[in-house]
Write a structure and sequence with these properties.
This protein has about 900 residues and is of the alpha+beta class. It has 34 helices and 27 strands. The strands form four sheets. Strands 10, 11, 12, 15, 16, 17, 18, 19, 20 and 21 form a ten-stranded mixed β-sheet that branches. A hairpin with a 5-residue loop joins β16 (about 445-455) and β17. α10 runs antiparallel to α11 (about 280-295), α20 runs parallel beside α27 (about 680-720) and α28 packs parallel to α30. The radius of gyration is 36 Å and the shape is elongated.
Length: about 900
Amino acid sequence: MSQEAKGEVVPRTGWHEAEASAVAQEFGVDFERGLSISEARSRLESHGPNRLPGAKRESGLQAFLRQYRDFMQIVLLAAAVINLIVTGDVATSAVLAGLTVFNAVIGLRQEAKAEESVKALAQMLKTVARVRRDGQAFEIDAEELVPGDVVLMEAGNRVPADGRICVAATLEIEEASLTGESLPVAKGTEPVQGDVPLGDRTCMAYMNTSVTRGRGEMIVTATGMDTEIGHIADLLSTTEADKTPLQKQLDSLSKIIAAIACVALLLVILLGLIRGESFDTLFITGVALAVAAIPTGLPAVVTALLSIGTREIARRHAIVKRLPAVETLGATSMVCSDKTGTLTLNQMTARELAIPGEHRFTVSGEGYRTDGEIKHVGGSNIDLDPYLLPMVLCADAVLDGDKLIGDPTEGALIVLAAKGELDIEETRRSYPRIAELPFDSDYKFMATFHEMAGTRGGRVIRCYVKGAPDVLISRGSSYQAPDGTVVPVTDENRSLATDANDRMAREGMRVMVVGQRDFDPASFDPSGDLIDLVQDLTLLAMVGIVDPPRSEARDAIAKCKHAGIRVRMITGDHATTAAAIAGELGIEGRAITGATFAAMSDDELLDQLPQIGVIARVSPEDKLRLVRLLKRSENVVAMTGDGVNDAPALKAADIGVAMGITGTEVSKEAAVMILTDDNFATIVNAVEYGRNLYDNLLKYLRFQMSTLVAYIAVFIGAGIFNIAGGIPLNPLQILWLNMVIDIPIALALGFDQPTAGLMDRAPRPVGAPVLSRTDWIRLCVQGFVMAVGSLVAYRIGESQYSTAVAATMLLTTLSLFHLAVGLLSRDQRNTIFSRAALPGATQLRRYAIALLAIIAVTTIDLLQRIFETVALSFSQWSICVGIAASIVVIEEIIKFVIRRRDGRNVAVPAVPAEPALAAT
């Protein structure tokens, strides 16, 4: 028994190269009758339903426990448990454990919903398919389709599976979501030889694409996960989203903090044992030191900064689904952008009108707005009505305000006619069609027939034609000169049309030709063979059409270049068109095709990528490979896209950016950021905000780490000099400092006004630590000054007043140090004694809250009992303030030295010069 009879069809990928009859034979199907119902049932059991497997969902408990993978969370929880077991201090342990729950809840609330990319793909398959089985047409659920089924399609249908087209009547399919091709693809039945990209396989139809014109029939060649969209689903399910640069940097910082804390803890225990203290006492000291060494507020502050950042970016037309992605934007060094709709308007627009005889007209305006003009060189003004009429009459598209209903190319033509002051609706009413020849991919033109006045008086039946240049030029026998005379086409003047076509094509324009022919009404038969009448045409005009670049995208790309961010265009369009648009936008580098890209080895690509600016006709694998190679080169990569084919690359990129208006649900699920206006400039604005957020986060981290060094130095100093029994602060006092005093300061730093010149800097290197060696040296100096000052305050209080006053003065002095360091962390170079150094009103209020908390813990009776503090006199306050002011003096000396040093150095540009590359 044959495999076909068993229903076990062997999968094959080269169906586009085979004749339709051979495909039918391979699948054991009679095209006129289709499969039998029993055979279809057998194949369904063998191949399974035509659907994609659903994604495994994460439970609520799993999502909550995942929050405890964070190093800080684990250390806090361990400290709480050990403290409870050893000391029995329920209050401190409860606060520590509560902090971990608080951080976990915030993380869950702000997290993006679980990724459902494969589920979104499966949802797209919920459609009805018309099939021919046992010689009759049936409507079935698309999930019941099997290889070998004969599917019937017409305009408006969604293609339910992959298939080899066997019948195509003016069939056009919009494949942008799969291939990135901006225009519908004309389909035929002839095989296409060679391993060509999906977009060039004109005899194939693919699942989830849409029929926009005509009708067709196909033999199903693949279903479910064997389809091209299933292949993408497989890519998507095996693509892992990497950690963001901030997450990696904070992980490294956590390890540094843990190492410092462990060394400090061992040193404190060693000093205590030398002094003869018991291990239980030393353990209490260790718990206090652990609480001090762990920046307990760090997860909450970072989450709050990123959360508010997402709302701010949303106001700028970008929705961020994962919090760390807000910061990642600021580190972006490469942007790989789709062309259609992102860098361009996704609205076909006539740019040029050419009339034989070297008459060229430029057309202003963009998209489907009719407020542009047709401009001409002075002295060559002519009546354009004869040339614009066919653009209105030989078209089916309709304008609804600024929106188009119908074919985009026809839209460009009718808008051009409207700019020439033709009333589209009235013109069509005045010259109704008496016959028409619809567009067909076999003959590549459309013709309509109208009764109207002839050029010599009397009535004629005029045929208006629009179509591809090569077809209409070959069918033309004359052209109409601007003065109305008809000039025969000869060998001498034939180049007028071909040269104009070649020139516009080289400039990346799609060229359409309009022509006409008159017939005697008495002999014209509307029901006759109209295609034979479309000969001996009088050529009227050529129109150059483009999907124009967004003006704001051009400015945004220039801004990227200034900020050291490289922009590349990744598109499904043809290389010539893409290169022309890239040149207009200022994207540097040569254009290559996806086939050339795929043929290169990784090493070759890594060597040549700096010279490549445009990659055209790409496959999903090409995009995914490009992202991985760029990340391997230590770049932070943003990838934009709107189609199903973009989803794997969007997921693999550091920042996947989907289009909110034109994007598929699959691309939106795979991305971490969605543009609500589909505008490239929005990405650049988000990058600028991301840089500002990271700069402010860096201010906070400098503040947090300097206070961390101060805590550890205070404990080590107390142990060495036997101050406060080696326990200068208890755990609750440290938590008060970290959570009540530090968090308002942290928020003031995190939402500080943007630092000048952020977009003049190069992107920060991927491998660079969040804090440099120079930063750590400076932070250690600050921490040492704070520790010494706090211990001195304790000694003064102990010698002049009492132990309780001394402990309160230590806490108060250290708190005032925190406040001063917060203000100093805003600017590492310029003096704090300037008007520009003054924070905004909102930030000043946050510093005021911290100051009130410092005062409150020493004046409110309830807080005094909880935190073991006492009230301070004016002289005691003066001592604390005076000691805390020492950090300002020392920092101002450091800043003065830095300014003097920088003043002697020659300025070096922040952004490395990019080599000029010609777009080809």
